[in-house]
Amino acid sequence: MSEKHDCGLMLSSLVEYIDGTLREEVCREIERHLRDCENCRVVVNTLRKTIEIYQVTAEPDTLPADVRQRLFYRLELPNEPTETNSALAHQPGSLCPHCHQARLDYDGTLTLRCPACGYAEGGGCT
Amino acid sequence: MDKAAQTLSLAKLQAGDPHEFAHFVDQYSGSVYRLALKMVSEPQDAEDVLQETFLKAQRALPKFEGRSSLATWLYRIAVNEALMVLRKRRPDMISVEEPDPDAEELDEPLQIIDWCCLPEAELLSNEFRQHLQAAMQQLSPALRAVFLLRDIEGLSIEETAQTLDVSQAVVKTRLLRARLKLREALSEYYKERLTERSQ
Ligand SMILES: [Zn+2]
Ligand SMILES: [Zn+2]
């Protein structure tokens, strides 16, 4: 049955289809199949959504200040501050900049602390 | 890696100019750390990977021949360092390629539930993030590396292939496998949520 065959074609061209790099002719064939095949439609939608979810929930690619400090020390580089040194701008609920596994919260002494790794920030006056 | 990319002088870098190297580190360390964190998941291990990567880069820069971009070259060092950490954790593993990520049959999609329109708040819960992380760790290192380089760090298929020293066809196959496996894991999660809600 040709439908099964088309589902296979769909699957094998999925990377190019989602990246939009498929040959025009194959692309049209796939879109025709998608109109008729609910299963493939769901797979394509949820696959796109999966990639998007991982992208939007990815941590920012800024280095936590303490990690940067130890890196520069190890590399024997002068530890000049960068323009992007905004590591102290976190608030309760910010993703822990150290382990990225949990959210920061006040621990009772006005210190933002990570429940997962114990990373602490702030305290004292601002 | 798409931060206001300063233009780095390769000549200065290769001559060992510490100021230029500091710029190089600041430009790339954020994405190298993120990649390492997702590859090895333990923050301490990720920091080791980060430091080893730049130490190796520092030593190897004079020999850099420019056959790939600096970024690809650096990612390659980082991925190898991460794989080394994973190998140390599992000394019984002969190769990280095991089980051969390209030999097995492609898994057909099993979960066919359309969860495209769930509330955004769901995405921000710690529970969900942990699930995302766990699904990622279920991938073999070879599949994980491809997904992270292509879909998170935004490298092209060609750059990913260069970084991992495999063909573009292999990158595409692994990328499809990785994406499908993650999709399967998220579908599983949403199925459970939907069942809970309807009870
Ligand atoms: Zn189909
Ligand atoms: Zn933490």
Structural description of this entry:
- The complex is a heterodimer of chains A (126) and B (199).
- About 5% of the residues of chain A have low confidence.
- The longest helix of chain A is centred in the middle third of the chain and has 19 residues.
- Helix content of chain A is 47%, strand content 6%.
- Chain A has a three-stranded antiparallel beta sheet with strand order 1-2-3, with no helix packed on it.
- Chain A folds into two domains: 55 residues, no CATH class; 64 residues, no CATH class.
- In chain A, helix 3 packs across helix 4.
- Chain A has 126 residues and is mainly α.
- The longest helix of chain B has 30 residues.
- Chain B has 199 residues and is mainly α.
- Chain B starts with 9 loop residues before the first helix and ends with a helix.
- In chain B, helix 2 runs antiparallel to helix 3, helix 6 packs antiparallel against helix 9 and helix 7 crosses helix 9.
- Chain B folds into two domains: 88 residues, Rna Polymerase Sigma Factor, Chain: A (Orthogonal Bundle); 94 residues, Arc Repressor Mutant, subunit A, CATH 1.10.10.10.
- At the A-B interface, helix 2, helix 4 and helix 5 of A face helix 2, helix 3, helix 6, helix 7 and helix 9 of B.
Q: Can I get a quick summary?
A:
The complex is a heterodimer of chains A (126) and B (199). By secondary structure, chain A is mainly alpha-helical.
Biggest interface, CB < 8 A:
A-B, 45 and 49 residues
Domain module count of chain B: 2
Largest sheet of chain B, described in full?
A: none
Report the radius of gyration of chain A as a whole number of Å: 24 Å
CATH-assigned homologous superfamily of the largest domain in chain B? Winged helix-like DNA-binding domain superfamily/Winged helix DNA-binding domain
Structural class of chain A: mainly alpha
Count of individual beta strands of chain A: 3
CATH classification, class level of the largest domain in chain B: Mainly Alpha
Tell me how many strands of chain B there are.
0
Strand content of chain B: under 5%
Oligomer: heterodimer
Largest sheet of chain A, if any? 3 strands, antiparallel
List low-pLDDT spans of chain B.
Answer: 94-98
